[in-house]
Design brief:
39% of the residues lie in helices and 24% in strands. The radius of gyration is 19 Å and the shape is globular. The chain is of the alpha+beta class. It has a four-stranded antiparallel beta sheet with strand order 3-10-5-8. It has a four-stranded antiparallel beta sheet with strand order 4-9-6-7. Helix 6 packs across helix 7.
């Protein structure tokens, strides 16, 4: 199986064996036999922007592999206040910790753009996990990466010296991913409203708008709709100290 077109004009990946993010995903870097069995228990769906995959407190009935698109993860207070934990990129596995721990989902998830998401039912996935030792190792590595990202987000919100530093750190983080490549001139999509960016770094929409405009006037970034280009990452990094 290869790829086909689905509603919303998205090119659908029909098999884990031909996944273009396979080399980037900790979860998908498995042997051919394990990948073939994983593919057999996978249910593929394409979601429009704004679709909810699961909600905080819901019983974990399975996990979701993000094949393409972006998804925001949020938590909410009893008073209705919400906070964006992070934005997930292609190759990430959502709901993994809840499924392996047999607890409710810790966050709510919503697509930020048209996305292909593969669903693995909980019981079938756990049987698959018991059959392949290499899968257990990949799961442990993925959970460790999730914990690392959670620590980073906590440090960004709680320890950054200023709101300017929080926003600069977010932009640098989204531009670099997990690499340490040269960031000058790097372009990336940040499909969030200014209000959602505020939820991600713990400030108001007005503050985000003011800081983005300030960064642009100073020649640190260029903004074209949701596309951001880093023009002077060194100066952005200087805000972090």
């Amino acid at each position: 199986m290869g790829r086909s077109r689905a509603p919303y004009g998205l090119e659908v990946i029909q098999s884990c064996l031909s996944c273009p993010v396979r080399e980037d995903s900790l979860f998908c870097q498995l042997g051919p036999e394990a990948l073939a069995e994983l593919n057999a228990i996978t249910q593929t769906s394409v979601y429009p922007k704004g679709a909810v995959l699961f909600v905080e407190g819901q019983r974990a009935h399975g996990l979701f592999v993000l094949c393409s698109g972006k998804v925001k993860l949020t938590i909410s207070s009893p008073q209705g206040r919400s906070l964006i934990v992070r934005v997930a990129d292609p190759g990430e596995v959502l709901g993994l910790s809840a499924v392996t721990s047999n607890v409710s989902y810790e966050v709510s998830t919503e697509t930020l753009e048209t996305s292909q998401v593969n669903f693995l039912p909980r019981d079938e996935f756990l049987r698959f996990l018991q059959s392949y030792g290499e899968v257990g190792l990949r799961v442990a590595r993925h959970l460790s990466m999730e914990l690392h990202r959670a620590y980073h987000q906590l440090a960004r919100i709680g320890l950054a010296p200023t709101t300017r530093a929080k926003l600069a750190d977010l932009l640098l983080d989204r531009a670099s991913g997990d690499t340490e490549a040269e960031l000058k001139g790097v372009c990336f999509q940040l499909p969030l409203t200014h209000e959602e960016i505020g939820e991600l770094i713990g400030c108001s929409r007005e503050t985000v708008s003011r800081l983005l405009n300030d960064f642009r006037r100073k020649g640190l970034i260029d903004v074209e709709r949701s596309l951001i280009t880093l023009l002077d990452p060194a100066k952005l990094k200087a805000f972090l100290t």
